[in-house]
Amino acid sequence: MIGAPMETKGLNANRGSKPNRSRKEIIEKKKAMDALLKAASAEKDHLSAFPAFRRYQTNGLSAFLESGRGDKLASSVKHYIQNLLKANMEGLYGSEWPVEERVKCREMVAPEARYIFVCEASNASASEMSTMSEQESTSASCVEKRGPMVGFVHFRFVIEEELPVLYVYELQLEPRVQGKGLGKFLMPLIELIARKNQMGAVVLTVHKSNSVAMNFYLSKMRYIISTISPSRVDPLIWIEKSYEILCKAFSDEAKAILEEPLEEVHLV
Ligand SMILES: CC(C)(COP(=O)(O)OP(=O)(O)OC[C@H]1O[C@@H](n2cnc3c(N)ncnc32)[C@H](O)[C@@H]1OP(=O)(O)O)[C@@H](O)C(=O)NCCC(=O)NCCS
Q1: What is the reported pTM?
Q2: Pocket of ligand 1, beta carbon within 6 A
Q3: What is the pLDDT of residues 169-180, one digit of tens each?
Q4: Which pLDDT score, from 0 to 100, does residue 96 have?
Q5: Which domain range does residue 151 map to?
Q6: Nearest residue by C-alpha to atom 26 in ligand 1
Q7: Residue of 70, 44, 31, 37 lying closest to 138 (CA atoms)
Q8: Among the atoms of ligand 1, which is closest to the Cα of residue 185?
Q9: How many independent structural domains does the chain possess?
Q10: The domain that contains 251 carries what CATH number?
């Protein structure tokens, strides 16, 4: 995953802007979007609305999910994230990795960064969990009281193309838990969080050479290559860029801006 929302802005700066809108309408819309982002970002635990997603028990894997935020990460968690990013992504980025790693380190601790952590239930904690009350089991610290962390999702609520969207910056699972259905479990949760917070879409970037992730999002999770992705904006830009922007839009406005072919967008 490439945390590239800033970089994408220049590709398509006028997409979605409606020439006939008055200044007042534009200001009102911006205010409404800012209010949505503020409310979404103020939520302390995005899992609280979806308790069924706190636990994952399939394919021989037992895990717990926890919420977090970038400016509250323990240093052990920061190291964990950095190591997992390196293990999963260094090979894909090749010589670009040192620069990308620095960018990702900065993004990791941003106040806007929101996390879902996945922690394996060790045998001991699994039995402890069965005797815990629901409140205890949901408030226990992932790192201290449960088994080891095995992956995470880093997401943010941002404005993209004048739309409030949930941008997935990272979805990273340790190799030993990949292919056990966790990705297919986490992405619908992310989509529910987006919809609950009135985001128009889930947006993410994938490195062009990450064929497993491309297949996962496009074939399995039904994401599409967005109209704001370099390959759809201009093939010449695409050659220079190493990523695609994928999306799943929920609102009609977001579908028109992020999913429709270019020509149709301008007719809206
Ligand atoms: C990409 C990733 C998030 C997918 O999550 P996952 O839990 O491994 O995937 P799931 O087990 O939910 O599998 C979902 C589907 O993806 C496909 N898939 C997953 N891993 C695959 C692999 N290693 N090879 C081929 N197909 C794979 C499978 O077809 C599977 O579909 P099926 O269950 O119908 O057979 C995870 O593998 C990962 O963290 N990879 C490394 C980091 C990364 O590339 N992140 C995405 C950055 S954009």
Answers
A1: 0.86
A2: 1, 88, 171-173, 178-184, 206, 210, 212-213, 215-216, 220
A3: 999 999 999 999
A4: 92
A5: 5-267
A6: 212
A7: 44
A8: 12
A9: 1
A10: 3.40.630.30
